[in-house]
Amino acid sequence: MTHVTIDNKKYVIIPEASYQELQKQAALKWKPDKTFSIEEACTHSKKLIHKWASEK
Q1: Residue 36 and residue 38: Cα distance in Å, rounded?
Q2: Element (H, E) at 4
Q3: Pseudo-torsion of CA 46, 50, 52, 55, nearest 10°?
Q4: Distance of alpha carbon 17 from alpha carbon 29, whole angstroms
Q5: Model pLDDT for residues 3-55, shown as the tens digit of each residue
Q6: Is pTM, for the whole model, over 0.70?
Q7: What gap in Å lies between CA 9 and CA 13, rounded to an integer?
Q8: Residue 1: its pLDDT value, please?
Q9: Which top-level group of life is the source organism from (predicted)?
Q10: Comparing C-alpha atoms, which of 3, 25, 27, 30 is closest to residue 14?
């Protein structure tokens, strides 16, 4: 691992294999947002529309 300073900012240079491993670990921790079914999306959007309409 090598430290480099450019424009008073510090950077770390690591081997590509280590970088790939870090990316893999980060991807395993990532959880996608919940996807609605068509029926759930319709009811959710209708609730939001009614909420926004009542605010005006």
Answers
A1: 6
A2: strand 2-6
A3: -170
A4: 19
A5: 999 999 999 999 999 999 999 999 888 777 788 899 999 999 999 999 999 88
A6: no
A7: 13
A8: 75
A9: Bacteria
A10: 3
